[in-house]
Design a protein that fits this description.
The chain is mostly helical. The chain has a domain of 53 residues. A 3-stranded antiparallel beta sheet has the order 2-1-3, with no helix packed on it. α2 runs antiparallel to α3 and α4 runs parallel beside α6. It is elongated, with a radius of gyration of 38 Å. About 2% of the residues have low confidence.
Length: 413
């Protein structure tokens, strides 16, 4: 501007030099007006730059404060700070991005959707910002309950960035919630390849869930195929082995069911107590009592202190009327466990049958056996401590998978 002012000033001086006096005065007035206009423009531009710098500094301060409020969980303060940041500087795209996120966290996903969609409509938006905004938009739709649009947004993220692990995780969860099992499995496989993870339990749980849905639709063969895939991916998965064995047993394939349950024992001996009732029912169904006895004995050879299994073996003998062998097993059970209570009740009944006990105790003995038996067969979620009478593969309270354990074991642990 100074260069143009100097040139203009020189031209005016040359033009005025040869003019009459009256014209010279008019030209001088014009010259003064020109100088004044230039000065005003310069002052205005300097003031504008100062204001912009000031607004930029205040916007940055508000933005940083907003991030701090987000990290500390101060949602209301974060909204105020980030709103101030974007008001002062409309080009602060990251502040817009964070503002939408805070609205979603605050339970207002519709406002978050509007903010993130408006951000994506900007021209020349950097690729990284666009991907982040699209990812956040997917989460907005998820929280708003629109799973289809959420899936579309997250799928677009994985197209733009095929290494976006978070988008893959969210996409898998959305497909799972929508019971779109084939798509969920495809995404989980991609996630495993990307993270180079060998943990296939998540993939197994998807096949297990898909199999249960197929079973509900009376597609038994297809459900068995899914259950077999689940057991292959996670050999120690109790839920999948139970589902496979239960379905085989219900369809009359008792020996195949026994094989499925015994595979679980071989892969994970610690789960043997969970399989007891099923094995007993199956072996008794086909009359192979000695085979069941041998299963117990093989396990106890390596786990002689397992009160649950020893008690089960004793009860097996009792059902077969082999009181002498039952008594020997019961006497091996320690005195510091719930199992010992039930063992002593059983022993009292044996002694009664052998005329060693008074008849008046019989009613109390029977009640004690039933009560302790019910306690020992209750399952509890190790995540939320919810209890159920039957074993559950997915907790009905917290929705976590494979968290069931005996609420009160025979050993009292």
């Amino acid at each position: 501007m100074d260069r143009y002012f100097a040139a203009g000033w020189k031209s005016l001086k040359a033009a005025v030099a040869g003019l009459p006096t009256s014209w010279t005065l008019a030209a001088a007035a014009a010259l003064v007006a020109f100088v004044a206009a230039v000065v005003v423009i310069q002052v205005w531009r300097a003031a504008s730059r100062t204001r912009r710098k000031g607004r930029g500094r205040r916007s940055q301060i508000a933005y940083v404060q907003g991030l701090s409020d987000m990290l500390s969980g101060q949602t209301t303060r974060a909204l105020e700070s980030l709103s101030q940041a974007v008001k002062l500087d409309g080009d602060n795209v990251d502040a817009y991005l964070r503002l939408g996120t805070v609205f979603r966290v605050a339970g207002e996903p519709s406002r978050a959707i509007r903010i993130h969609k408006s951000l994506l409509m900007r021209r020349n938006l950097p690729d990284e910002v666009a991907i982040n905004a699209l990812y956040e938009l997917g989460l907005d739709y998820r929280d708003a309950g629109d799973l289809e649009k959420a899936a579309q947004a997250l799928l677009r993220v994985t197209t733009l960035d095929d290494k976006h692990v978070l988008a893959l995780r969210e996409l898998r969860a959305i497909y799972e919630k929508g019971r779109r099992w084939d798509e969920a499995i495809a995404v989980e496989k991609k996630h495993l390849r990307l993270t180079r993870s060998k943990d296939q339990r998540g993939l197994a749980s998807l096949h297990l869930a898909w199999g249960r849905d197929l079973l509900d639709e009376d597609q038994v063969e297809s459900s068995l195929e899914s259950f077999r895939k689940a057991t292959g991916l996670n050999p120690q998965g109790v839920g999948a082995h139970f589902a496979l064995g239960d379905t085989l047993f219900a369809s009359g394939q008792t020996e195949a069911a026994i094989a499925a349950w015994e595979r679980l024992i071989n892969d994970s001996p610690a789960h043997f107590p969970y399989v007891l009732e099923r094995l007993e029912r199956a072996y008794f169904n086909i009359g192979q009592f000695d085979d069941l006895r041998n299963v117990y004995l093989r396990y106890l050879e390596a786990n002689s202190d397992d009160t649950n299994v020893r008690l089960a073996l004793a009860e097996f003998y009792l059902r077969r009327g082999r009181l002498e062998e039952a008594g020997k097993e019961l006497e091996l059970i320690g005195e510091d466990s719930l199992g010992s209570i039930k063992a002593n009740l059983h022993l009292a009944r044996i002694y009664k049958d052998q005329d060693r006990e008074e008849a008046a105790w019989k009613a109390r003995i029977e009640a004690g056996i039933d009560t302790v038996g019910a306690l020992a067969r209750t399952f509890q979620c190790r995540n939320c401590q919810a209890t159920q009478r039957e074993y559950f593969w997915r907790c009905p309270s917290c929705d976590r998978v494979e968290t069931a354990r005996p609420a009160i074991s025979a050993s009292g642990s």
